[in-house]
Design goal:
Length: about 425
């Protein structure tokens, strides 16, 4: 994610009228009009392959024909667009679909809270609820974690570029080291356990731990199942709830619907947003174990907690992609292919691969190099972004539905860009 403020657009109205807080448009200074699948078209009709996918909001691609048809049918039949949090047929269908195809087959028992439609709002609800349930204040969040930019969530976010925008104390969060933060030889889970067990460590008893299984914005650091299980056990031992923020890593991005499947993790609270609606419509959820649902009516409120269009497309997406194991099998195959392609690039330039599933990338060494690689990709018709503390990771987040040919062609562009940028650097050094 770039946070620079260079002035590069091809349409003056953006510079003239829109706040300079905008960011992605600086990396991709074109005006886009249409999109289909993994392809997005600028105003002149030039096609780009999308390896950003709305930062994992378009896991099923742009304008999936079945999701689009479900939404058009619903709108054409005058289905309710806005209903606050009233019962609607669209919500009923979504809840039944989510229960039947997501929760039940995985043996998961959760209540669903519809929060305001952004990821940050789901995180705010999760943090508030943990504090309400435990009567404690401190939330343990991890180095390089990203949880959103509203004040509560921002306190849990590590990145100083985002934090400095608050201009007010960001409180109520204690920072702990993520898996591998101090290198392979230091077990950060043991460290945290020791700090929480020592009455003189200065750590307040925590209400919750909040963790991403793969840190999307923080550099594609993937925690091991072993570390996550240990962290989960430590949370439990110290009376804290365990929150998995699955906003970026969920909805199939790591290969399964939830990013922690198969690990035996059993979070107390799960946050979801981004690809949940399946079509890029704003929609967020906080899932909680039923015993934690102690909210009073309207205690965490919001006008847009019932995006009925999103209920329709989310239910259609779950029905289409998650009613059998076919999509997951495809993801496993694509993830292996992605890993192999990235290993080859990393090996050629003596670099490291990061992440897992369809959420992988390469540490290009510095932010400047990663940015140059992404710029080169864009010139070649590929939209791709950086991640990490210094923006040093070139991050591949293609739609999960991308066909193999387009995926391969996009990865060819990435490979050539690494060669162009790092090969030039090597030649200059010789
Ligand atoms: N949590 C994670 C893991 C995220 O990746 C993000 C956004 O990138 C958020 C929370 C915040 O979501 P939103 O930008 O919709 O507020």
């Amino acid at each position: 994610m770039t946070l620079t403020t260079s002035k590069i657009t091809n349409s003056e109205v953006f510079d003239r009228v829109e706040s300079q807080v905008r960011s992605y448009s600086r990396s991709f200074p074109k005006t886009f009009g249409k999109a289909q699948g993994a392809t997005i078209f600028d105003k002149s009709g030039k096609a780009y392959t999308d390896f950003l996918a709305g930062c994992s909001t378009l896991n099923y691609g742009h304008n999936d024909p079945d999701l689009k048809a479900a939404l058009i049918d619903y709108i054409s039949a005058d289905g309710i667009t806005h209903g606050l949090d009233m019962f609607t047929e669209a919500k009923e269908n979504f809840l039944e679909t989510f229960e039947r195809l997501i929760l039940k087959p995985r043996g998961m028992d959760y209540k669903l809270q519809f929060t305001g439609p952004t990821g940050a709002n789901a995180v705010e609800a999760a943090m508030k609820l943990a504090r309400k349930v435990t009567g404690r204040n401190s939330i343990i969040a991890f180095t390089n974690g990203f949880h959103g930019v509203t004040l509560g969530a921002l306190a849990a976010t590590g990145n100083s570029g985002h934090r400095q925008g608050a201009n007010t104390p960001l409180s109520g969060v204690t920072r702990a080291a993520y898996d591998g933060y101090f290198g392979a030889d230091i077990d950060t889970a043991d460290m945290l356990d020791q700090q929480l067990s020592d009455p003189s460590s200065g750590f307040d008893a925590p209400a919750a731990f909040i963790v991403e299984t793969v840190q999307g914005e923080g550099g594609l650091n993937a925690a091991s199942a072993e570390w996550l299980l240990k962290i989960r056990a430590i949370a439990r031992r110290h009376g804290a709830l365990f929150i998995v923020d699955d906003i970026q890593a969920g909805c199939g991005r790591t290969g399964s619907f939830f990013s922690f499947e198969g690990m035996g993790l059993d979070p107390d609270i799960i946050t979801m947003a981004k690809s949940l609606s399946g079509m890029g419509l704003p929609f967020a959820l906080t899932l909680m174990k039923p015993r934690l649902d102690i909210w009073k009516p309207a205690e965490h409120n919001g006008t847009f907690r019932g995006n009925n269009h999103a209920f329709v497309t989310a239910a259609a997406a779950i029905q289409k992609f998650w009613s059998d194991g076919k999509f997951e099998a495809e993801l496993a195959e694509k993830s292996t292919y992605l890993g192999e392609r990235l290993d080859a690039i990393a090996e050629a330039h003596d670099l490291g691969r990061r992440g897992r599933g369809m959420m992988q990338g390469i540490n290009a060494g510095t932010g400047a190099v990663a940015e140059a690689i992404c710029r080169s990709c864009f010139r070649s018709g590929l939209i791709i972004e950086t991640s990490g503390a210094h923006g040093e990771i070139v991050k591949i987040l293609s739609p999960l539905t991308i066909d193999k040919q387009q995926f391969a062609a996009g990865l060819d562009i990435v490979e050539n860009a690494f060669e162009e940028v790092l090969g030039t650097q090597r030649a200059a050094a010789e």
